[in-house]
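Quick one before lunch.
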Amino acid sequence: MRAMVEAFPSLLSLTKPDPSIMTMASQAFSSGLHGICIAGMGGSAIAGQMAKALLAQKAQVPLITWRDYELPRCVTKDWAVICVSYSGNTEETLSAFETAKKVGSALFIVTTGGAILEQSKDLPVALLPKGIQPRAALPVIFSLALPIVEALIGIDSTDFSKLSVVLEGLVKRWGNEIMSPRNLAERISSLVPLFIGSGHMVPVSYRAKCQINENAKTVAFSAELPEANHNEVEASHTYKEYGIVPIFLRSTHESKKMSARFEATDAVYRQSDCAPVHVRLSGLSELEETLAIAHYLDMLSVDAADIREVDSVRVDKIAELKRRLAEGF
Ligand code: F6R
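Model of the fructose -6-phosphate complex:
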């Protein structure tokens, strides 16, 4: 897992969608789409959540994500649906795929193979490289899914080769501008992290929670601002008792109102003898920040796994659940 996470920057420029897929996405945009839905689960869902957080405000039509069976009724033949499943065998994603086929939406598939590929003859498929854990494939899934979404909303494609170089360079700032992932992992090793983000950092905080769960095999939580100011904050006097450490994922693009919220939340938490950790990298675009902080926290999860002496690759319980469900209970 460490090698896969270290490869995060280079995985961003490993592949790109076939020009024929981009043409189909541009044609779908020109035909006047009514909405775009990105369906997928777990490690295959996060790229869509990031794309939505970064692009929803630029899209002239609803851009939604779906992590469930079937699809919401509003998704019709005038929508585009992107189904992402690393294995191609995830039952919720297959259900969304079948629903999209039934209603006649413009379908795009991102996968390595499996049942979804078998059922995708004549459909645009962006093929992922095999042999990576789905969650570690985030950069490559993102580099295929984001350009499709960009074309579907009629904006220019991101230059992933450039992005990959930027991300590579940012690793040097770990341990200087921000604490190294290893130091942070040591500092929180006996604590439960509560990642808190706002705006485009919301999926990054959820990703960090999931990476701690799956890689370090331990409990973690995520929340978002401003919403957490209306509920979560009332529990903060118990954080010390339960060993919870809030980790604020800050953005240099935060509005003044949002910065004030982070600082006020920090002050309220400190009253309960709980000092949040602030994670922030300066001088980056929203897209760079999203990926750079996700990469940093992916590394934190691998360091946490090492400290806990657990196998960061195996996901036996996820596999058992899938097996039990396939066998009928
Ligand atoms: C495993 C992982 C899981 C899977 C999820 C969906 O590394 O992160 O969350 O991503 O079970 O499976 P796929 O990605 O094959 O559709």
